[in-house]
Design a protein that fits this description.
10 helices, 4-stranded antiparallel beta sheet, 2 domains, 19% strand, 3-stranded antiparallel beta sheet
């Protein structure tokens, strides 16, 4: 990753082609709220036998985490919305408070959770989740709290880019409806394939397993590619972009089943 730019702004770029201009700002360091939340999340993870997001080591994604405790132990639920750390600068406190209130209603159904968090050393749990968000300071604390900031993702599925070395797409680079699939798909189906330009794409089967139908639907294409243009054209016409069984991308997707 490299930084350059005119005075007052800097640009960020990496091998996956994107570039944005943003105001200069001080280097970020973890807030006390985020450090406390990560400490609790890691203690919770040590109690689990497995994770829906695969093995660690973990990075904590600001994705609306609602860690929950019941008679069977800890499990993770995601709130309706999650806020990235940088998104707080454009967030309206009252709108984020709706997210907090959704968390309050959730935990009312799991009354053992907040006391358990406090027992594990997260002393401000009750105060954070019950305090209305009315200003930027309270908003920042909530965004960096266990109630938003601690979805555990391995680095390659957090900020990774598809490559020959990494078969996973990171949630910061690819749409969440697509990156979610890689965690629950069958092992013998290949989600991420390569189009005829050598660019990454994602496909899903068009029919149930065992049907004998080898067609696939394109659900992701790299922006700027010919495949993306074809997908856009199909959407304008109100149809999905479907590839026949003999198409190279369909053959890639099903090659472990042949």
């Amino acid at each position: 990753m490299s930084d350059d730019g005119a005075p007052g702004t800097h640009t960020q770029a990496e091998d996956d082609p994107w570039k944005i201009n943003i105001p200069d700002h001080p280097d970020r360091s973890d807030s006390p709220a985020f450090r406390a939340a990560k400490q609790l999340a890691r203690a919770i993870l040590e109690t689990l036998e497995g994770s829906p997001y695969g093995p660690g080591p973990w990075q904590m994604h600001h994705g609306g985490s609602l860690w929950t405790y019941d008679d069977q132990g800890w499990f993770l639920v995601l709130n309706t919305l999650g806020s990235e750390w940088s998104a707080q600068w454009c967030a309206q406190p009252g709108k984020v408070d709706l997210i907090r209130r959704n968390a309050v209603r959730h935990y009312a159904g799991f009354p053992k959770t907040i006391p358990r968090m406090i027992e594990m050393g997260y002393r401000d749990a009750a105060e954070i989740v019950t305090t209305p968000i009315t200003n930027a300071e309270l908003l920042g604390v909530f965004v960096d709290s266990i109630f938003n900031a601690c979805v555990p993702l391995a680095p390659i599925v957090h900020t990774g880019v598809l490559s020959k070395e990494s078969p996973y797409g990171g949630i910061h680079h690819y749409p969440k409806p697509i990156t979610d699939i890689q965690f629950f798909k069958r092992d013998d189906f290949i989600l991420w394939v390569v189009d005829d330009e050598g660019r990454a794409a994602a496909v899903t089967p068009l029919a149930p397993r065992g049907s004998g139908d080898g067609r696939v639907q394109v659900v992701y294409a790299e922006p700027g590619s010919g495949l993306a243009a074809a997908q856009d054209h199909a959407e304008v016409e109100g149809r999905a972009l479907v590839l026949p069984p003999e198409h190279p991308m369909a053959l890639q997707a099903f090659k472990l089943q042949r």
